[in-house]
Design brief:
about 0% helix, single chain, mainly beta, four-stranded antiparallel beta sheet, about 120 residues, globular, 11 strands
Length: about 120
């Protein structure tokens, strides 16, 4: 059974940094892509960043490009989201998700972790 468990959220002042972790278990993720999404109160869930487990290639939403970095540690089966220069508008519940590369939808989701950025 696949499990994705996020951690690392919290309260930070604008301009600060946080690192989120997503620990994955239950299968080999070599052929998967892993992504971070976020959802702010009253808003739709939005894509933040994605990484290919095999190649390590990445892509980002324009709103976080240059400030956030997604990475993975294959030995720990963990995906990270380093968030720098945080803004109040980054406040949201952040969730990681996984799918087989090329599939149209994400099969697995974590429970989410709250990130709050104060001004």
């Amino acid at each position: 059974q696949v499990q994705l468990v996020e951690s690392g959220g919290g309260l930070v002042q604008a301009g600060g940094s946080l690192r989120l972790s997503c620990a994955a278990s239950g299968r080999t993720f070599t052929n998967y892509v892993m992504a971070w999404f976020r959802q702010a109160p009253g808003k739709e869930r939005e894509f933040v960043a994605i990484i290919s487990w095999r190649a390590g290639s990445t892509a980002y939403a324009d709103s976080v490009k240059g400030r956030f970095t997604i990475s993975r540690d294959a030995a720990k089966n963990t995906v990270y989201l380093q968030m720098n220069s945080l803004k109040p508008e980054d406040t949201a519940v952040y969730s990681c998700a996984a799918k087989v590369a090329g599939d149209p939808s994400y099969n697995y989701w974590g429970q989410g972790t709250q990130v709050t950025v104060s001004s």
